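Project channel, design review

CF: Before we commit to the Zosterops lateralis melanops constructs, I'd like one complete example in the thread so the newer folks can see what an input/output pair looks like. Taking Alpha/beta hydrolase fold-3 domain-containing protein.
RD: sounds good, go ahead.
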Amino acid sequence: MAVGQITYVKFFQELTIHEVKTAWKSKVYKYIQCSTGTKGNTKRCVRPPRTPFSIFKTKMISIATFLDKVGIASEVHVLRVIMDTIPPLKDKRLLIKDLRFERVKVRIYQPKTSNNSQRRGILYLHGGVGRELFCFIGAYERTCRYLCRKTNSVVVSVGYRLAPEHPFPAQFEDCLTAAIHFLRTAQDHGVDPSRVVICGDSSGGTLAAAVAQALANRRDLPKLRAQILIYPFLQCVDLNLPSYQQNKRVPILLKERTLILGLKYINKDLKYIEEIFKGSHVSEDQRLKYQKWVSPDYIPHEFKIRGYRPSPKYLPLKEMYEVAESMFDPVFSPLLAEDNVIAQLPETFLLTCEFDVLRDDGLLYKKRLEDHGIKVTWCHLQEGFHGTVFLAFFGGILRFRSGTKGVEKIVNFLRLM
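CF: and here is what came back for Alpha/beta hydrolase fold-3 domain-containing protein:
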């Protein structure tokens, strides 16, 4: 079964785990160079010759693995340090430079063409918060270049400090610092301060939502024009919503992996995973408070058709309260912000994917925003999965139709700002 001829949805609906792996390999091998053999019409597949970059990459990974094994530094940290020294690729159409907004590293992308008026500004917060290797500003080069070119905007990619070297909430603090600095100095970069949009994907969407909330009531700064949240993580109250049940084994973001990454991010022990899945980390008072914002009752029926079973209720565990305190901080769970904050948020573009555990977080946030009169442009990718928009910028075997559609919708929204 050729994966190139089916959708990602069918890919996971119809295949067993073994078949998924086999089919994915077939998609990869379709892109391996094939040459005709000397006998008859028989074809043999050969891998492309190794490039200097692939040789360099292999050597660097080997060095990082060695340093990790001898206990000098973690493999991820070494590879990040190496990749952080790689300068941005040159682009004839763009001016790209690395700066600092106070203490925070940023990479700015500006169109070289002249403009009669000040441009739109996009503050981009990448996903991963450091728990994934390829979550740093260099990994988002294609994303930022594309947005800069297609929307004629100045894009600022924020190189916030990463976990685990820098524990929570250092990531939020850096993003907020960069946002404030950009709003105050926008004109220095040819940007209209009233047309600054904050954008982020995955945990970068979480950070974008949290920064937008932190700026909501600031009277000393220009208002954000809009926020773009691409499949963000938004709450840790209920991890048994329909999307968590339906997509718990769907790559790229599995249900258990979601919580593991979250707990590592806020430096909590993984031994509490089962209690959190049961909801035992939420006190009775918190359940009463949050049930008006986080409840499967607010998920439309069409999103329960694929399967949903109400979860049994478990008693709260007092020993979990202190552990869970930071989980209910709006910086970590923006869906739990107070009403007076939500009511002040800017126009919002919200992207969700059908095959994503975080789908219902987005649906609940959409409802909260609309309940407070915030204009929401909602893009739901019916065949989408977590990470599909990020992968779309790489093309080839990594691009799916859902990701391409999501990118188009984001660009169209930005052009209206």
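RD: helpful, thanks. The chain has one domain: 89-417.
CF: Residues 220 and 328 are 28 Å apart (CA to CA).
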